[in-house]
Structure formats: structure tokens, C-alpha cells
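[Q] Does anyone have a clean C-alpha cell version of this?
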Amino acid sequence: MTYGNIGFWARIAWLFLIRSGRSSAALSAMVVTAVAALIFLSALSVGVNDAMLRNTVGLFSGHISARALDADIRPKDLKTAGVRGVLKRIYLPGRVASGKVNRSLMLCGIDSARETALTAFQQKIITGRYPQTGQSELLLSRFLAKKLGVHKDSRLSLTLQGQVVPLNVTVSGIYQAGIDTLDRDLAFLPLTMLAKRETPWSAAVFLEKDINTGDIIEKYQQKWPGTQSSAAYRFESWEARMPDLRQLIDLETISMGIVIILVFAVVAIGIACSFVIFIIKNMREYGIMKAIGVTNREMSLLIMIKVAVMNGIACGIGLVIGAVAVWGVTRAGGIDLTAFTSHNRYFSVSGIIYPRLTAFSLLTPPAISFLFSLVAAIWPMALLVRKKTADIMRMV
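[A] Here you go.
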């Protein structure tokens, strides 16, 4: 009999686990529950991050913004692999008047159909609609509408920068985005009203899921070399525009990692205590094994294999249960947290969370569990190694 054979000790470990079936099942259930719960919570954490990003960049700004683009550059020139769509916008100062009340504002020329297809901003229009292509219309913020004392279908006098003769425009709608930078002195009009102006334009670039903004910006810089140093064009990612959101997402990930470690630290202590009880309960068998020549190294290998086999099976079951739970919740339409996020600017469009499995959320809980289980085996291993054969036999 070769005691150093790992296959032999794996069979012995399996028989020990089968013999203590109830105890093994109870310990496995603890690991299964912890792994499944933390996979779901990790996926939920990823879903929260997705929701914050989706609500923020999907409302209006896009993943990448470009400024001061020349008129001969077209939106399709910014299309590349990983880019879902590009919106052309022209910003221009102006003044708007209603009766004796007039106010300076920033005008944004848009293509309403494209905006509706790529952004969620239309959900923030509280009355009316987007200004339509070919029409002399204006979409005002609720703040501006109150200041001017106007409502939907009101007539206004609009003067663009560099223009002498004012234009007569109709208020097509009123919006309230819930974000200060959008809700003050910003109004929208059709791009067709600015079509004859050779004005530098801005772009909002929307990316596919899980596309790195830095990779896309690098492609743009290669396509238009030297533009960053000359400040002719400026490509800016959402991470640069919103460092607070980037930090919040990183904090969410770090916090989830700490939770996983703390949970499995507690589980590992439970595993270690339980295996010490197993060893004491089966001390006679271990004493006999030592008496017939099983070395401390082989005894330690046996304990390690027992813990690894039990935890490996439990982790596999927990992984499947956690993944199925995530799939089921996603298929059911996600988790609606609108009641708890209605005043949060990072959930200005929707409070529905869709848990999402990533390599981190799926593999980290079982990996940490397996690592901690091996650490937990040290205590029962040390207990056996330190006991002499004669002492063990006297105990039994």
C-alpha cells in the first residue's frame, strides 16, 4: 500500500465524508448558502454600477463627449467598432424674450429622432415633446419656463449669437432632468435652424456594453493626430467628466470584496471548528492509522483533501444556484428600487436594477471560499500532528 498516493488518500477522504454524512451535509449547506448568496449580491452590486452608469451617460451626455469638431467632420466619421451611435449637437449662446421678460441662455441644436433613439432624455419632458426637424420650436427647462412665464405652445422671440433679426419660435415642450447643469439655462432647438452656420459642433458618443472608453479615445487620437496638443478637438470620457461616479463605482466594488472576505472568514472558522469535532469524534481511527505507520504528512494530506473535496463540491453547487438566481431575477424584470432612488441623480431615469454576472461576481465567492477552507484545515491538521500515537490510543 502506497500511503503517498494522492488518489488513495482522496478515496479515504471521500469515505470519511460519506461516513459522517449528516455533518458533511450541514457544513456543505453552509458553504453552498454563502457562495450562492454572495454570487447574487456580487451580481447585484455590478447591476447597481450598471444602473448608475446607464442612468448617467444614457440620459444625455454619452460615454464620450467631443467638442469643437470641424464642420467637415461628420458623425459617421466617429463610428468605429464598439460605438453604438453618435449624436451631433451644436451649442450657441442666445437670448429669448417673452413680452418684457428676456433672458440669456445656451442653445443646443439637436436631431430629435436620433436623440430619442440613443438617449432617455425624452422621459424627462414633463409636457409637450422634442422640437421637430424643420420647425421653429424650442424645448425649455422648467426653470426657464417659470422665469419667462411661458408654457407649452407659447410664442417666444429668439435671438442667436451674431444675429440681428430675432426669430419667432414656439415652445414645443418643457423638461425637468433633475440635474442642475441641464435644468437651468439650456434650451433645445432643431439642428435645421442652425444648418447654414459653419459652427464647430459637439458629439455625444454612446458605446456598446463593456467597451473601454480609453480604447475608443485612443482610436480617435490616432485618426486625428495632434489634435489634443493643439486643443482643436477634445475627447473626454465619462470617467473624466464625472470622477465622483467613477469613485462611487470603485467604492461599490471594494465594499463587495470586503463583504465576501468577511463572510468567508466566518465560514472558515465554522469549518475549522467542525473538523476539529470530526477529528475528536474519529480519534480512534486516526490513532490506528498512526499506529500502522501513516506519517504526519500523509495525515495532513488526508485532512486537506477532505476539506478541499467537501468545499469544492459545495462551491460548485452554490455557483450554479447563485447563477440561476441571477438569471431568474433578470428574466423577471430586475429589482425595482425606484422608491429608494427617486431623489438620487445617478438614478434619474430608472431605479430598476438588473443583476449581472461577471468574472468577478461569479468566480470570486467560490475562489475565496476555497482559499479560506484550505486555511481552515490548518487547525485540525495541527491537532493531529501534535498528538502522539500513544496519547491518542489512551484517549480512546
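[Q] Thanks! Anything notable?
[A] The two ends are 26 Å apart (CA to CA).
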